[in-house]
Amino acid sequence: MDQIVTICGDAITELKKIPDGTVRLIVTDPPYNLSKDYGNNQDKLRFDDYLDFSRQWLSQAKRVLTEDGTCYVFMGMRYISYIYTILETELGLSFNSWITWYYTQGIGKTRGFSPRHDDILMFTKHPKNFVFHLDDIRVPQKSYRSINNMRGANPGNVWTFSHMHYCNKNRKNHPTQKPEGLFERMILASSDPGDTVLDPFVGSGTALRVCQQTGRKGIGIDINPEYIAMTRRRLGEEFTGFDSIDDRMKRIPNDLNDREIREEYIKNHIAWFLRNHPDAVAEFLEGVRRKYPNDESVSVPTPLLDFFNEVVSG
Ligand SMILES: C[S@@+](CC[C@H](N)C(=O)[O-])C[C@H]1O[C@@H](n2cnc3c(N)ncnc32)[C@H](O)[C@@H]1O
Fold first, then answer.
1. Which of 4, 161, 252, 285 has a CA that sits 20 to 30 A from residue 219's CA?
2. Does 313 have pLDDT greater than 70?
3. Which one-letter DSSP state was computed for residue 136?
């Protein structure tokens, strides 16, 4: 199989062509049935028809997953409880995590509370046998302590990334494009390089872009040929870092007062937390200079810093 495959077609029809047990990870953001205009499809089914559509694609999703596979499904408030029931009760998948994507800004309600989150359900096919690479998705500690695990902390289940605003240079002409940072975390945690990752509702291609840059094989399906063309163009673009980053990844720990420890930590920080974000390294180093003003260590040439400086300066 090619590294990245894009398919234009209906998700249920195309899923049926994928052999059993061949996909390690499904990460997908299906239509939420909220009447979004997706060009040739309008995201507007009767309540029962939407549940039936969800049941059909989710049961195909289960079939194509490997026995140790994992599935992440985005969903809005209106249908998430029904999707949860389909996954757990009807399909017998194992619940692992309910992740809240906190997107910080959005529409303002005048009678009721303004919505500020979507959610992501993480289920595994087997209750115990699945991959979860915590070290690949840790976030930096707030302070240096010799007893702390400076490799970082678990990011938790509330993930803060703003929506893809029109001013983001990676913004595509798709109404519900998601930040790459969300997909980066799911894909790094729940698959290995070389694994096959599937998104049956790929839209502007966010999942496939992350697969491409993290060494996974990817299959993306969408019913709209314009979005498939958009995805293909996106995959040909130059990579300077994912389009969004959890702000905690740029956090410089307090109390890194010992010079040798600090030097070692800074190199590690770049390798651990910023490896897919070369365009965030300059800001991070600037922050280190501000926090530890009399320190020349951050300008000491090291192969790693040279490498990242080269990438940043283009
Ligand atoms: C919420 S969007 C996905 C956005 C994507 N995560 C991104 O970051 O760009 C859902 C997508 O599902 C597609 N879609 C809707 N019905 C479909 C179907 N039956 N089969 C395949 N794709 C479908 C829409 O065209 C739309 O692009």
1. 161
2. no
3. G
Q: Whose CA is nearest to atom 5 of ligand 1?
A: 203
Q: Which residues line ligand 1 (CB under 6 A)?
A: 10-11, 29-31, 38, 41, 174, 176-178, 201, 203-204, 206, 221-224, 227
Looking at ligand 1, which atom is closest to the CA of residue 222? 22
What's the 257 CA to ligand 1 centre distance in angstroms? 49
CB 97 within 8 A of CB 105: no
Distance between CA atoms of 64 and 278, rounded to whole angstroms?
35
* pTM flag (> 0.90): yes
Beta bridge partners, 158, equal 100
Closest CA to 308 of 257, 271, 261, 260: 271
Domain ranges of the chain: 4-235, 252-313
Q: How far is the CA of 24 from the centre of ligand 1 (A)?
A: 21
**Alpha-carbon distance 108 to 247, whole Å?**
24
Q: What is the DSSP string of 227-254?
A: HHHHHHHHHTSPPSS-S---GGGGPPPB
- For tokens 């990844």, what's the residue? 249
Q: For the domain bounded by 4-235, which CATH number is listed?
A: 3.40.50.150
The distance from CA 247 to its chain's CA centroid, rounded to whole angstroms, is 14
Q: What share of residues in the chain are helix, strand, coil (percent, to 5)? A: 40, 20, 45
Q: Is the pLDDT of residue 309 over 70?
A: no
Q: What angle do CA 131, 140, 151 make, to 5 degrees?
A: 55
CA of 53, closest atom in ligand 1: 19
Under 8 Å between Cβ of 10 and 224: no
Supply the residue whose CA is at minimum distance from atom 26 of ligand 1.
203
| Model confidence pLDDT, tens digit, residues 198-255 | 999 999 999 999 999 999 999 999 999 999 999 999 999 999 999 999 999 999 999 9
How far does the centroid of ligand 1 lie from the alpha carbon of residue 126, in Å?
A: 27
Per DSSP, what are the bridge partners of residue 160? 102
